[in-house]
Amino acid sequence: MRTAYCSRRHQRVRKFAGNVVFCIASLCSAAGVIAQTQDYPTKPVRIIVPFPAGGTTDIIARAIGQKLSDEWKQPVLIDNRPGGGANIGAELAAKSAPDGSTLFVASTAHSINATLYAKLAYDPIKDFSPITLMAVTASVLVVHPSVPINDLKELIALLKQRPGNLNYASAGNGSLPHLAGEMFKSMTATNIVHIPYKGDPQAMNDLLGGQVSLTFATAPQAVPHIKAGKLKVLGVSTAQRIPALPDVPTMAEAGLPGFEASNFHGLVGPAGLVPAIVDKINAAVVRIVREPAMSKYLSDQGADPVTNTPAEYAAKIKEEVATWAKVVRSSGAKID
Questions:
Q1: Contact criterion met (CB below 8 Å) for 299 and 245
Q2: pLDDT average, residue stretch 62-87
Q3: What percent of the chain is modeled with pLDDT above 70?
Q4: For residue 173, what pLDDT is reported?
Q5: Four-residue CA torsion sign, 269, 204, 264, 84
Q6: Is the Cβ–Cβ distance between 176 and 261 less than 8 Å?
Q7: Are 19 and 260 in contact (CB under 8 A)?
Q8: What is the CATH number of the domain that holds 71?
Q9: Same domain, 127 and 275
């Protein structure tokens, strides 16, 4: 009996000791997380942009990244990783350590790719920690001055008269300009030849040079060329006119009701990023975007400054994935 009692007592003592060790370990872990969050960032932060330098996403990332660097007293480096329709950069970000040292700018291409590609090396939703939206940009329908039209209705009439004779540039197969072009073709029952490029800058360069006829460019990229008289602008893809081009009608006002194609630019980290770090980055970016000088800069570029909470941004990504899945399927676009 005494032996059984001692055995039970020994088990209770051992269990108690184990619980004490567990509690101490948990407290140490929690203390470590708190310290990590308070000190973050303790080293340079890399923001992966999955497009070439000079494009819309790059412009937004560099502007906000510089402000983050000033605030955090740490270098915030923009790492351009173009290619694969934004998948090369996304995969690299998804497989990075979830410690806040690597962030990723997710554009609408990120949501499109969830359906466009039959196989991805990452999950566009599950493998990322949403932080916040930064800006929303309109697509702007611009044409080379050599195209003999002055408004959207004249363009549609010309396309019907000369099916297949004009072409449009995009940032690549499955990019927003590509799907916006396919949507336009479907809604107007016209035929325009698609010319895919490896990014927005290359597509814009050939449009300015007259090698292609038109494109659905992002507003920050197109506005300077429109104001310089190098391109004709026919409409913006948003539901309302944009501050950077107040005299330019929406596509609906110009004669194509129901046409909308906006580009969302947000900041995410790899899955598993500590919520407290997510919240700290969110607070910094929201504060920066809402600064009058930054808001004006983004608006002047044709981008609408927009921020939200991590939960709201997570919901927005899921909504965008579902929205563009319908467009991808109706267009027949698919990349293996």
A1: no
A2: 95
A3: 89
A4: 80
A5: negative
A6: yes
A7: no
A8: 3.40.190.150
A9: yes
